[in-house]
Amino acid sequence: MLKTSVANIPLKSTTESHKWAPGDEVHYNFWRLDGSLGTVHPARVVEDDGAHLLCWVLDGTPIRVTTSPDGRSPRQMPLAERFNGPRVPARSTWRGTSTLRLVYEHRWASVWWFFEPDGTFRNWYVNLEVPLGRDATGVRRVDGVLDVEVFPDGCWSWKDEHELADALAAGRFDEQHLDRLRSEGEHMIALAEAGRFPFDGTYCDATPDPKWALPSLPEGLLIA
Q1: Ranges for the DUF402 domain (predicted)?
Q2: Number of domains in the chain
Q3: Would residue 11 count as lying in a domain?
Q4: Domain for residue 216, yes or no?
C-alpha cells in the first residue's frame, strides 16, 4: 500500500487566519493524511486567541462520523480492518458527557476535560493529534490514535497503544509522526505528574453557558 505523507494535505489553513468569539459555532474537524474528512464535532467557543481555542462539545450534539459501507463503526471492526477500506459519512450524536476542549494551534495535542452528567469533573484526556491549522469552519486536526488519560489524583495511562501497528501499516501516519506524537504525550505526562497547567485544576469547575443551543451539523457534511 502506498503510504501517504502529511505533505499531501495543507499543513496550514488555505484561508486567512480565523478567530472566533464566545458562543460562536466552530467545527473540530478530523482529517486524514490522504485528504479525506473523517469525524466532525460541532462545538461552542468559550474563548479563542488564535493560538488556543477553548470550546465545549456538548452532550447531545449531532456529529459526523464515518462507517463502513455496511454501517459498522470503527470500534465494531477488527483491528486489521479498522484503518483500511472504504468509509461513508454518517450522522451520530456525542452522548453521555459534555467535554471542554483546549485546542493548541501548534501543538500535537488537545486536552479534553470530561464531566459527569451532573457536571462533576471526571478526568482529562490528552488527544494526540497532528495540527493542520484552521479554515473558515474550524480547526483541522489528524487523529494520532495514541492518547493519554489523566485522572484527578495524578495517575495516567497511555490509550490505544494496541492500535498503533495497524494504523502504521494502513498509512494513517508514519514512524516520524508517531515519534512526534509520543513525545508530545510524554510532555503532557510530565505536566500532569507535576500538577502543572492544564492539569492543575483549572476549568475543573467549568460549566457551559445554559443559554447555548446545541450546535448544528450541516447536511453537506453527510455527503460522501
Answers
A1: 61-197
A2: 1
A3: no
A4: no
Q: Rounded to the nearest 5 degrees, what angle is found at the Cα of 159, between the Cα atoms of 154 and 160?
A: 175
**Which cell numbers hold the place of 129?**
493529534
Rg (CA), the chain: 17
CB 167 within 8 A of CB 59: no
Distance of CA 127 to the CA centre of its chain: 6
> What is the tens place of the pLDDT at every residue in 18-38?
899 999 999 999 999 889 999
The CA distance from 25 to 105, in Å, is: 17
Q: Residues for the chain: how many in total?
A: 224
Residue at grid coordinates 449531532: 62
Residue 215 lies in a domain: no
Give the separation between CA 87 and CA 44, rounded to whole angstroms: 27
ω into 117 cis (within 30 of 0):
no
CATH number for 35: 2.40.380.10
Residue 4: pLDDT band with limits 50, 70, 90: very low
Q: pTM of the prediction?
A: 0.90
How far is the C-alpha of 214 from the C-alpha of 166, rounded, in Å? 35
Range of the domain at 166: 25-206
